[in-house]
Write a structure and sequence with these properties.
Chain lengths: 107, 121
């Protein structure tokens, strides 16, 4: 089974900061990776698919990159609405393993 | 507007069974692969199962394989999850999810609000 890790587990940042979250797969998943944002008490929201494709309606300050086993989600200039938990998900096989999540907190 | 409404979550004793339902609307249900994803209280997301648009293929996480069964009724725009031999670590909010693209598998574009399953004596 493919295992996913994320770093950091918690990230403290300020409005306007540029932040990067890293996701690693235990084996190559090519570009079959998605990023989701989840706020407390809400369902997750799809941000990025196929590692770097921005979902419709998602602000352009979000971007994704990577292939193979290492991927990043970057928020170019943090806005107040961005403080949430972020999950990566691999879907190279017929099992959509999620990473453990990165909680983005206000510094 | 796409809507996914889960139901069926209750308190059930260990070893018990439960059937979750997800009513879909706002899209052509039988064109899309559908998923169940769960989230234990205060924990991360765990993908549980998927069923392809025609019901022809199903896949499961190792943690539920042999105990859970996913199905769909395209005539009723509905998705189901039959859960047997429930364990305390199955306690979670169960989300129904819709694929982003027709006739594909993953990622999940739309999610319901979830139904809470509590396994406890």
């Amino acid at each position: 089974d493919i295992q996913m890790t994320q770093s950091p587990s918690t990230l403290s940042a300020s409005v306007g900061d540029r932040v990067t979250i890293t996701c690693r797969a235990s084996q190559s998943i090519r570009n079959w990776l998605a990023w989701y944002q989840q706020k407390p008490g809400k369902a997750p929201k799809l941000l990025i698919y196929e590692a770097s494709s921005l979902e419709s309606g998602v602000p352009s300050r979000f971007s994704g990159s990577g292939s193979g086993t290492e991927f990043t989600l970057t928020i170019s200039s943090l806005q107040p609405d961005d403080f949430a938990t972020y999950y990566c998900q691999q879907y190279s096989t017929y099992s959509g393993t999620f990473g453990p999540g990165t909680k983005l907190e206000i510094k | 507007e796409v809507q996914l409404v889960e139901s069926g979550g209750v308190l059930v004793p260990p070893g018990g069974s439960l059937r979750l339902s997800c009513a879909a609307s706002g899209f052509t249900f039988d064109d899309y692969t559908m998923h169940w994803v769960r989230q234990a209280p205060g924990k991360g997301l765990e993908w549980v199962s998927l069923i392809t648009w025609d019901g022809g293929s199903t896949y499961y996480a190792d943690s539920v394989w042999g105990r859970f069964s996913i199905s769909r009724d395209n005539s009723k725009d509905s998705l189901y999850l039959q859960m047997n031999s429930l364990r305390t670590d199955d306690t979670a909010l169960y989300y129904c999810g819709k694929d982003r693209e027709a006739f594909g598998e993953f990622p999940l574009e739309y999610w319901g609000q979830g139904t809470l399953v509590t396994v406890s004596s």
